[in-house]
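RECORD TYPE: inverse folding
INPUT: structure tokens
STRUCTURE:
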């Protein structure tokens, strides 16, 4: 049953790759994903930010999906509002700040689940990184998922190239426990837009596993398993894992043993391949640094490919490079492309596209 489904999905991907240069299902042309839009330049998850990523040549744009109190799907990196909006400056919402458990951690903030969509629309977006340009703070609304879908489809028609969508379901267990589950609403929203097939330019992602397994039973849309990390040992390059980034939170909720390293084992990759099409570990699982020198784990990519999984990774940031690269952001892209990754999430889509194209010209065996 599973193998038949993979043959169908493979055929769909082949058709899509032949029809458009926006996406290719082989390492010959790695995918460039506008991570939250183009937050290296503009506030994340805003229409101008997504438009900029598309203009820069991103193949896909990534909306992180959370829920309002009245069940509308909106795009924010977390179900928290204080860092990326002006909510704290609005006295009418001062009483909304509260403490909730988010992935088992007591977190005090303004939560999207305590605001209606109408209230959310009164807020304005802000740049999340203190060191980046804040001249656009306060200018743009918080968007609904539907508005981002509409934008991608309009830009696909306008540019003549397919702009893909890479929605991430944020904190699924948290939303499910509130009675605001995202999964079925997301599928319904995509279906209404005609984006409900294996060949559709859509990939659904999650750090948790149970919701992806649930989705696999309901859709042939491509699914991606995110794999988190906390830090790396500067002397050995080994992964360091700390809660809540040490394992999928549904594993914590169900008392399942193991951590993210188990997901990257041979057995873990085989399990992921039963319900997902892509696995996406934090880039430091694949490329870390020990005493200033790179530690490359190409075997993880090779083992994933042997299971029929593509490998994407995240997040590329020009302004957060390891000292090894001496300020040359493209070199990090080249290292990851050389490891065989099939796609990268980036805050700077222009750099990602430029690096990908340069790598293809100089390093890819064929185009």
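DESIGNED SEQUENCE:
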């Amino acid at each position: 049953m599973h193998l038949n489904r993979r043959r169908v999905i493979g055929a769909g991907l082949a058709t899509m790759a032949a029809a458009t240069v926006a996406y290719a299902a082989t390492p010959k042309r790695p995918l460039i994903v506008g991570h939250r839009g183009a937050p290296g330049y503009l506030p994340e998850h805003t229409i101008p930010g997504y438009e900029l990523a598309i203009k820069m040549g991103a193949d896909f744009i990534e909306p992180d999906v959370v829920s309002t109190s009245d069940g509308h799907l909106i795009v924010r990196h977390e179900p928290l509002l204080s860092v990326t909006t002006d909510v704290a400056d609005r006295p009418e919402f001062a009483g909304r700040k509260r403490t909730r458990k988010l992935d088992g951690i007591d977190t005090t903030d303004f939560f999207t689940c305590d605001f209606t969509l109408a209230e959310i629309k009164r807020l304005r977006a802000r740049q999340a990184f203190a060191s980046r340009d804040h001249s656009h703070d306060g200018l743009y609304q918080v968007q609904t998922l539907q508005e981002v879908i509409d934008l991608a489809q309009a830009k696909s028609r306008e540019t003549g190239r397919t702009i893909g969508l890479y929605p991430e379901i944020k904190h699924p267990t948290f939303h499910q426990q509130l009675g605001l589950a995202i999964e079925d609403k997301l599928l319904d929203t995509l279906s209404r837009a005609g984006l409900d097939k294996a060949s559709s330019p859509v990939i659904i992602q999650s750090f948790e596993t149970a919701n992806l397994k649930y989705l696999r039973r309901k859709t042939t849309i491509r699914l991606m398993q995110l794999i988190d990390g906390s830090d790396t040992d500067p002397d050995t390059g080994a992964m360091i894992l700390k809660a809540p980034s040490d394992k999928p939170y549904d594993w914590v909720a169900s008392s399942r043993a193991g951590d993210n390293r188990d997901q990257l084992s041979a057995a873990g990759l085989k399990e992921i391949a039963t319900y997902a099409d892509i696995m996406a570990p934090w880039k430091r699982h694949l490329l870390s640094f020990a005493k200033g020198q790179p530690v490359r784990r190409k075997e993880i990519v090779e083992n994933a490919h042997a299971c029929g999984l593509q490998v994407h990774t995240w997040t590329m940031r020009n302004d957060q490079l390891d000292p090894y690269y001496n300020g040359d952001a493209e070199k990090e892209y080249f290292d990851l492309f050389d490891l065989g990754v099939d796609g990268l999430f980036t805050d700077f889509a222009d750099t990602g596209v430029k690096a990908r194209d340069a790598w293809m010209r100089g390093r890819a065996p064929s185009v």
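NOTES: The CA atoms of residues 223 and 268 lie 16 Å apart.
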